[in-house]
Design brief:
The structure is a homodimer of 336-residue chains. With 336 residues, the first copy, chain A, is of the alpha/beta class. The first copy, chain A, is built from eleven helices and twelve strands. The first copy, chain A, has helices spanning 6-13, 17-24, 32-45, 51-58, 74-89, 106-115, 159-172, 188-203, 221-234, 246-258, 292-307, and strands spanning 63-68, 93-98, 120-124, 140-143, 152-157, 178-182, 213-215, 240-243, 268-273, 286-289, 315-319, 322-324. In chain A, strand 1 (63-68), helix 5 (74-89) and strand 2 form a beta-alpha-beta unit. The relative contact order of chain A is 0.13.
């Protein structure tokens, strides 16, 4: 029996071969009814499309290589969801590899992806790392890690402005003795958030001294708890705490509870990420919201556009963060 | 200039071509020092391996297709981490696609993966769905969704036993009026956990009536909160609540707090998943732990083994859950 071809499928339905090809490549520009009919006919006739073989001819694999830290993080998981969704709508599949946190396996992962002929690479590696030679001849989109490369596309949430908004809000409420629980400073988002805080504080001539902050060793609840204990010791008269993520803010809630300090009456608390749990904390936690899924979609859109345009140039792009006000911040009490 | 080949790389270092090939395919059976030297030499000589082209010859793509619900879930994200880690150690890359929750795009996703020549498919789709014809000629490993297919590999956490342990523990503490907040019953884990609860209750001749449980519409904090409010209304004399996940237990915490019912003095609460946050809740939440990363590793191991063995047969496998006891459950007070 002769092998079934793409043209057999097209003829059986009475559409063009190009339409069948679009469906197989999951392009969005096909009517839903047509799409369903094409897949049904592919199954009925037993046609076996081979995108890989066609990739060898077109020199396109229609695969995006994604290298990420583990997705056990709300924001990163949202970015990945948006990225895959947009990539698929553009006919691209995602190859996923998890890198070690210190990124020392990154060169191997990149080379291995290139060996698998990915058309572009996306990096979700917010921790700073040293990558001596990033000589890849495909477009690369990176979040949080600024690549210095003529074809690199760097996107991120505007963490400087996000932290600026947070601290500006605390200052406007009247707080002057603010404690900071920062993420590990070798993570780009932590460094950016410290910079944003510094800018807001400078407007009121409030210095950011060593006494004012504790750098946590990771982003966990436990680290937030320990950092808050240390912060309350070194800055006992603080009236507000800004935490670089909501998990650490939750750890700080426990530390404050144990010390008998009421939130927000005695101490205001402000988080970052706007996790769904914020509304369920007692009191509900004010937090800075990051548009994870939108950022992922932007990454896919930019990098796939770059594949199709050889003249692509370096792009740096920031999306805004937004302060979500709930009940964990009030003006400092005068009697404290 | 002549194109650099795999043999040039092998000759430059003095290893066999097979060793170079093993490194490129990320097989684990190569010494670390050799691995580093091979990649360095590949970069120095400018060799461009093409796993895709070799796949056409060997009829192996060394790609695993993973179809999953979004990874914004602790357990699923852990499974994915374990799966990718183990797949990579066996020389396999992971292709990732997110399916819609009702899985009505699953046939398309599967066909599209097959068109990309994946060697096997892994499904992380815990919601029950109707898939009329799963006629794929590659091995499929599925979590939570039992595939009835001669080459299917079904793995899962033993949710029946997990819930049995949870309810047995509540019964042993003396609870007899137990409320249940279940996940949506079209999700396999929810149905299994109800079955496990029923078995434990039957041992004490305690019936599981309609008054005793509320089925939440999803797995969120908000649903848990609403379900707890309803449960307290229809079963006001309950002394314990078993929640099908920790997020819903957290929602129940808020509902109980608002009603002035103390945990665990007035009402004991037991969750499922053992999220990191359990230890930070007030009081720390007892919960049933699921081995997510281990389960993901098992999935990769089983399905890749099946690729290499044409005589593979259907396998059903369960891994055990474990009750983690903290402070949210005590014996019911006699005065209630």
């Amino acid at each position: 029996m002769r092998q079934v071809t793409l043209h057999d499928v097209a003829n059986a339905i009475g559409v063009s071969a190009q339409t069948v090809s679009r469906v197989i490549n999951q392009r969005p520009d096909v009517a839903d009814a047509t799409r369903v009919r094409v897949w049904e006919t592919i199954r009925q006739l037993g046609y076996k499309p081979n995108i890989m073989a066609r990739g060898l001819v077109s020199r396109r694999s229609h695969v995006l290589g994604v290298i990420t830290l583990t997705l056990n993080d709300y924001f990163r998981s949202e970015v990945m969801t948006g990225l895959e969704k947009d990539a698929r709508a553009r006919g691209y599949a995602c190859h996923l590899s998890f890198a070690k946190e210190d990124a020392d396996d990154l060169p191997e992962l990149v080379d291995s992806m290139l060996a698998r002929q990915v058309d572009a690479i996306a990096l979700l590696m917010p921790k700073r790392f040293v990558y001596p030679e990033f000589h890849v001849d495909v477009p690369v989109v990176s979040i949080a890690h600024l690549l210095d490369h003529p074809r690199a596309i760097n996107v991120d949430v505007d963490n400087i402005d996000g932290a600026y908004q947070a601290i500006r809000y605390l200052l406007d409420q009247g707080h002057r003795t603010i404690g900071h629980i920062t993420g590990p400073m070798d993570w780009a988002p932590a460094a950016d958030r410290v910079e944003g805080a510094r800018r807001a504080l400078a407007e009121e001539q409030v210095p950011l001294t060593l006494r004012n902050y504790v750098e946590s060793k990771d982003w966990t609840l436990q680290s937030g708890y320990e950092a808050a204990c240390q912060l309350l010791e070194q800055l006992p008269d603080l009236t507000a705490i800004f935490c670089h993520n909501d998990w650490m803010a939750l750890g700080a809630y426990r530390a404050l509870r144990e010390m008998g300090r009421r939130i927000p009456t005695d101490v205001s608390v402000l988080g970052y990420d706007d996790l769904p749990i914020c509304q369920f904390m007692e009191p509900p936690l004010s937090s800075v919201r990051q548009p994870g899924e939108g950022l992922g979609q932007l990454m896919a859109q930019l990098v796939i556009t770059a594949i199709d345009h050889a003249e692509a140039y370096r792009q740096d792009m920031l999306v805004p963060a937004e302060l979500m006000v709930r009940d964990s911040v009030i003006a400092p009490s005068l009697t404290v």
